[in-house]
Write a sequence for this structure.
């Protein structure tokens, strides 16, 4: 009874996913539960294992081990049924060279045996004036939008968008965001991988930060900041001697490098202590700034060890 | 298999093809260019071989009638060599394959029934020289009979093998039809499969309900149509430019379609097993070029050395061309059926291999 219940609310349920390429452990033990109607974002640096994970969910790649259910279907065994319910933009979307967006959508509609909605889709993605231009002659952003049109041509319940906005200009990116928001309002489940924290914060209900084939943190951006973040941070420029001054204050963490201090602390009272201590030291300081930690801070913190080398 | 899927994929492939000039060039224009070039080189409308004749007994009636008898065999085209030339030097300087010297005392010796020697020089590596020798022997024989006042009982009646199929051009057209079926199938599929793999188009197609089988049927249909267009074009150009006597023959369609089927399967295999587009292009060339020369596209297999003739029997194109020659040149239906059967069997084998090695999925 309980299982039945879960099946009705979960769009994606993956347990213990592993996938290696030779010695590289591309995905090293990932579990995911994504609810229907949710926008879920996989966030991570290059080579983190995002595409490998998503493509296993889509049924493009076969996991070495682990189990996956997408809308209650096994993506390998029930691939044909699943194809009709999912829309996919793979990373590095590409299409047949000399086919126009309009023709491509018509082609997909026939293959999926659904009504041809090319006009509606082309309008929604702002491709109207290039709807008869062959694929190779389109700009990167326009190509990506064709990918979105094709992914939507079968009116899918669940969408997998692997870096749909990478390499696009800010306006084209916002244009795609708008479409994603509209899709969300239509209660479709969306799995979005991205490098852009801004994009995840802007669109995602929940985020998973992936690194080295593992999920480092998962939850709403707010939850992640709360759980993995350290509250607030103070940035100030000054000489190394100030390190002693900060060390005397309890309950704060101080990092120093090339004339810049980053202090992480929890209580507003610490601000007063730090500012006083700075004044009393008589040493030079400048550019004092106090801020709440963002998702980006947490992200860089979590994957920091790797980014440094 | 869903007909609508095949149709949709066919339309997309056809559009992409027709918008790609190089594809059109290789499929339609390339064989026509070969037809024009080889046709022009080898036609001139005759199958006669050159024979140089030095008549040192010029003026004598008997030597002149000997030459005119040679002429009327219909096997040789005679070029006169000046009587003051040194024959050996002349042969070397003019790269002559077959030459004949009639001695100065020819008439005199014949009249007195003395033995007389005519010298025949030939290049043994040239089959045309053998034909010339044959003509010379024929004439010598008939002269010997005449001199001995005997009547030959056995006549060698030299006549073309078929009334229509004499010219090289008639031979060339079936060969080039085979060539275009081979190259269009192998080249287009090695190229498509390797580039679709690299460009991730197969990944994209694998996200739709389109199946590999439907995709292949659509490629087969397009290639079969292009093959028919190429055949009609070649026969028309052959007729208009060279006056070839070959007409479009519906009986060739099964062997052509099996050929298309086999060669696109072979192209799919080559494209699938190669790691990248460059390797695929090399494998495509390695398959097509030796096959196209050895299987009788440009020259009859029977004119090649024995060991090459044996090799030819392992090449599918050999049977495609043989079958078409059988029906188009000789009206030989059993010959066509036999070769069609062999081509069908080879093509099915290629098809099954292609289904094994061809995959849209990445590992
Ligand atoms: N087909 C493959 N063959 C070999 N190695 C692979 C293959 N696919 C992925 N990998 C490796 O697996 C790791 C994870 O790759 P993946 O593409 O999943 O990363 P990603 O998070 O999507 O990165 P990016 O942000 O750059 O797209 C990488 O180290 C990559 O080199
Ligand atoms: Mg990726």
């Amino acid at each position: 009874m309980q299982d039945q219940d879960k099946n009705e609310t979960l769009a994606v349920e993956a347990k213990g996913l592993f996938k290696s390429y030779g010695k590289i452990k591309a995905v090293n033990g990932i579990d995911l539960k994504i609810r229907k109607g949710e926008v879920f974002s996989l966030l991570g640096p290059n080579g983190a294992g995002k595409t490998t994970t998503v493509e296993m969910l889509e049924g493009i790649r076969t996991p070495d081990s682990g189990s996956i259910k997408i809308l209650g279907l096994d993506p390998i065994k029930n691939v044909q049924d699943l194809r009709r319910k999912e829309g996919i933009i793979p990373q590095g979307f590409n299409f047949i060279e000399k086919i126009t967006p309009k023709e491509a959508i018509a082609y997909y509609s026939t293959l999926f045996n659904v009504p041809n909605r090319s006009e509606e889709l082309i309008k929604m993605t702002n491709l109207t004036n290039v709807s008869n231009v062959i694929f190779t002659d389109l700009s990167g952003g326009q190509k990506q939008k064709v990918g979105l049109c094709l992914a939507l041509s079968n009116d899918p319940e669940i969408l997998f968008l692997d870096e749909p906005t990478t390499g696009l200009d800010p306006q084209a990116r916002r244009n795609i965001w708008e479409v994603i928001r509209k899709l969300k309002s239509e209660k479709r489940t969306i799995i979005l991988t991205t490098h852009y924290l801004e994009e995840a914060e802007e669109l995602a209900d929940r985020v998973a930060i992936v690194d080295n084939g593992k999920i480092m943190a998962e939850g709403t951006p707010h939850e992640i900041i709360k759980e993995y973040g350290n509250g607030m941070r103070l940035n100030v420029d000054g000489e190394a001697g100030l390190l002693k001054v900060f060390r005397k204050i309890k309950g704060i963490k101080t990092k120093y490098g090339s004339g810049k201090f980053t202090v992480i602390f929890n209580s507003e009272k610490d601000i007063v202590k730090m500012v006083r201590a700075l004044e009393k030291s008589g040493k030079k300081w400048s550019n004092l700034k106090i801020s709440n930690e963002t998702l980006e801070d947490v992200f860089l913190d979590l994957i920091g060890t790797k980014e440094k080398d | 298999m869903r007909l609508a899927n095949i149709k949709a994929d066919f339309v997309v492939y056809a559009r992409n093809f027709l918008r790609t000039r190089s594809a059109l060039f290789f499929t339609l224009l390339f064989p026509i260019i070969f037809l024009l070039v080889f046709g022009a080189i080898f036609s001139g409308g005759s199958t006669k071989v050159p024979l140089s004749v030095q008549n040192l007994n010029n003026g004598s009636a008997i030597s002149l009638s000997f030459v005119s008898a040679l002429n009327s065999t219909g096997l040789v085209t005679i070029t006169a060599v000046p009587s003051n030339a040194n024959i050996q030097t002349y042969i070397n300087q003019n790269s002559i394959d077959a030459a004949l010297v009639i001695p100065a005392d020819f008439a005199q010796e014949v009249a007195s029934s003395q033995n007389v020697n005519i010298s025949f020089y030939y290049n043994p590596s040239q089959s045309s020289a053998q034909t010339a020798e044959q003509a010379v022997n024929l004439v010598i024989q008939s002269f010997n009979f005449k001199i001995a006042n005997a009547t030959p009982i056995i006549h060698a009646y030299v006549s073309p093998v078929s009334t229509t199929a004499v010219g090289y051009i008639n031979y060339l057209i079936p060969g080039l039809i085979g060539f275009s079926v081979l190259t269009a199938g192998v080249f287009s599929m090695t190229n498509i499969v390797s580039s679709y793999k690299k460009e991730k188009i197969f990944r994209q197609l694998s996200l739709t309900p389109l199946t590999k089988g439907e995709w292949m049927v659509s490629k087969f249909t397009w290639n079969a149509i292009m093959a028919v267009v190429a055949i009609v074009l070649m026969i028309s150009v052959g007729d208009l430019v060279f006056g070839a006597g070959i007409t479009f023959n519906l009986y060739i369609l099964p062997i052509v379609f099996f050929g298309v089927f086999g060669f696109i399967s072979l192209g799919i295999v080559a494209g699938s097993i190669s790691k990248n587009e460059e390797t695929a292009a090399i494998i495509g060339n390695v398959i097509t070029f030796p096959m196209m020369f050895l299987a009788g596209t440009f020259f009859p297999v029977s004119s090649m050395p024995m060991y090459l003739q044996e090799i030819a029997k392992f090449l599918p194109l050999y049977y495609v061309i043989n079958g078409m020659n059988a029906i188009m040149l000789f009206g030989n239906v059993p010959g066509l059926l036999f070769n069609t059967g062999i081509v069908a069997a080879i093509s099915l084998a290629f098809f099954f291999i292609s289904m094994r090695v061809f995959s849209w999925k990445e590992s």
About this structure: Confidence is low (pLDDT under 50) at residues 159-166 of chain B. Chain B has 14 helices and four strands. The pocket of adenosine-5'-triphosphate (ligand 1) is lined by residues A 21, 24, 26, 44, 46-52, 91 (CB under 6 Å). The domain at 49-147 of chain B is CATH 3.40.1710.10 (abc type-2 transporter like fold).
